[in-house]
Specification:
The chain has about 120 residues and is mainly beta. The chain is built from two helices and nine strands, in the order αββββββββαβ.
Length: about 120
């Protein structure tokens, strides 16, 4: 709860929001609001990552993640306003991942709820 409150306060102040991650993991915060997905950073290192998704909007939002050119889609289920969820995944080097909200049969995505994450070559 403290982590969520700290993230919400930082986001409200316009600061980058990055969750804590385990040793050797990249941490990435993703904030949903109407009609936008905001990433705590747009570029990360390859390897294990913890993605913390926070719904700061007024409507329910979910999160879908797919590597560009890939077939697999990872998901965080629909969250009510003020909801928070984590997802652990392995990010492939020299890749780009698209993230979007698929709520209302893709209407939220069409309204701008999409972001891209770049994974460095390293």
């Amino acid at each position: 709860m403290r982590r969520l409150l700290a993230m919400a306060a930082a986001a409200a102040a316009g600061m980058a929001v990055t969750p804590g991650a385990g040793a050797g993991e990249t941490a990435l915060g993703v904030r949903a609001e109407e009609w936008n997905l905001l990433l705590s950073r747009s570029s990360v290192s390859p390897g294990p990552a913890e993605i913390e998704y926070v719904n700061e909007g007024e409507d329910p939002h979910d999160l879908k993640i797919r590597r560009r050119g890939g077939q697999n889609v990872r998901s965080i289920a629909e969250l009510e306003p003020s909801g928070i969820a984590d997802l652990k995944m392995n990010l492939k080097r020299d890749s780009r991942y698209v993230m979007w909200c698929s709520t209302l049969d893709g209407k939220h995505r069409a309204l701008g709820m999409e972001a891209e994450l770049r994974v460095r070559k390293r």
